[in-house]
Design goal:
alpha+beta, six-stranded antiparallel sheet, 7 helices, 6 strands, about 15% strand
Length: about 200
C-alpha cells in the first residue's frame, strides 16, 4: 500500500522528466502514477531493482501485438512489472497477459509516446525516488489512538452495587377502643326531691 500521497505529489510535480503525477484510487488499492515526458531508462531501472532483490519482468508481449481494438479489451498497456524473480512458467504466463503481483509496473501511455510508472506498494515509491535521484523519506506512521479514560472505565466490569432496600411500612396500629362515657344516673335509693309548692 502507498501512503502520504499529498506530500509526494508536491515533491515530484516539478521534477525534470516528470510530466504529471496522479493519485489513482482503485477498489483493490490506491496507486501512484508518474507520467514521464522522455524515454524510460530500462537498464537503470533494472540495476536499481536488482540491488533491492526485485526483477523487472516483461509483460503483455502477446496482447501488445494484437490489433489495438482487440488488444485494449484484454490488455491494460502494462509492459513491465517489478516483482520478485519468477519461475519460467510464471514468466510465460505473464507474457500472455497474466499480471504477477509486484511493487510497481510500467505502462505505455495511451495519450503519448512515453511511459507511466505505477507504484502499487511503498517499495515501488522508494524505487521511483531512487530512479529519479531523489532522497526517499518513509511515510510517518499513523498516530497511535489515545485511550480515553471514560471508555477504559466503562470497559471494566463494575462490581454489582447492592440494591438499596426500601423500608416496608408497618401495618397501621388500630387505636384502642375506649369505653363510651357513662350517662349521669341517679342512685336508686335516692328519692327525688319534691319541688316546693307555693302556699297561699
Amino acid at each position: 500500500m502507498v501512503d502520504d500521497f499529498q506530500r509526494r505529489l508536491g515533491e515530484l510535480r516539478y521534477v525534470d522528466g516528470v510530466e504529471k503525477v496522479e493519485h489513482v484510487p482503485y477498489p483493490t488499492g490506491d496507486e501512484f502514477w508518474v507520467r514521464f515526458n522522455r524515454p524510460f531508462d530500462k537498464g537503470r531501472l533494472e540495476d536499481l531493482a536488482k540491488k533491492h532483490g526485485w526483477a523487472v519482468i516483461g509483460f503483455g508481449g502477446l496482447p501488445s501485438k494484437l490489433p489495438r481494438q482487440i488488444g485494449e479489451l484484454i490488455w491494460n498497456g502494462v509492459r513491465m512489472v517489478i516483482a520478485t524473480r519468477l519461475s519460467g512458467w510464471a514468466k510465460f504466463t505473464s507474457s500472455l497477459g497474466f499480471e504477477p503481483d509486484g511493487i510497481a509496473k510500467i505502462a505505455q501511455d495511451a495519450h503519448g509516446p512515453y511511459q507511466i510508472f505505477i507504484a502499487t506498494q511503498e517499495q515501488g515509491v522508494q524505487l521511483l525516488y531512487e530512479y529519479l535521484g531523489l532522497k526517499y523519506v518513509a511515510p510517518a506512521p499513523p498516530p497511535k489512538p489515545v485511550p480515553q479514560p471514560q471508555a477504559a472505565a466503562s470497559a471494566k466490569p463494575s462490581p454489582a452495587a447492592p440494591k438499596p432496600t426500601v423500608p416496608t411500612p408497618a401495618p397501621p396500629v388500630a387505636a384502642p377502643k375506649l369505653p363510651a362515657p357513662a350517662s349521669p344516673s341517679k342512685p336508686a335509693d335516692e328519692k327525688p326531691t319534691p319541688k316546693p309548692t307555693s302556699q297561699g
